[in-house]
Amino acid sequence: MTFLGKILTVLALVALASCGGPSSGPAVMAGQGSGPKFGDSAPHPWIGGHPYDHPVHGIDISRWQGDIDWHRVRSSGISFAFIKATEGGDHADPNFRRYWREAAQARIPRGAYHYFYFCRSGAEQASWFIANVPRERGALPPVLDLEWTASKTCPHRPPSHEILREAKIFKDILHRHYGQRPIIYTTVDFYRDNNLGSWPEEFWLRSVAGHPRIVYPGQRYSFWQYTGTGIVPGINGNVDLNVFAGSPAQWRIWLNQRLQ
Description:
TIM Barrel
């Protein structure tokens, strides 16, 4: 199956330019056809389907990616980026502002995400996110990252009703401030443990071994994080790779509907 290596998404708000035609880069995984000019340092067989036939790919990043050549990232076939901004109520990623600015200069649609802690209220964490992430026309919706933390300072695992209550407070505050409903990023165990399938929200699902339709049966989603060992020109070392669950035309429609 072939990819569209470059995505034509010329939008007034994000000023994406056409790069034309499929990429001639190497296959993302041996045997899966020609794709964007990036790959995976630890590819593996997939259960129930693979991400390599999706035409719209993106990254999510944090300080650990170091210096990034965003123009090389864009020319490799990357169509979006989610950038870590904050976690809890008192930590901000030191590279967020720089990444935010540089991604915009490279004309890559980008959004910010918050890593949720269970030792701070949803209201506190929302205030911290708002203090660090600009309300900016043309940005992607904010993202609420909900997963079990491995923090020594916050080992608390509250009951589901408490998690859902505080997370709802957080996302409602962000919705009012940014004018867009936050996307919910989550992992398989957290999703199951807290019955997130009951939420009428837009999801970004992590699944690095099986297709989401197998791992999250019946769950609708817009984004799928499929590996943490991606290789992208312009980024040193491994990086998380994601796909949008739709065609390039559907991606353009989604952007028009969901940009701030």
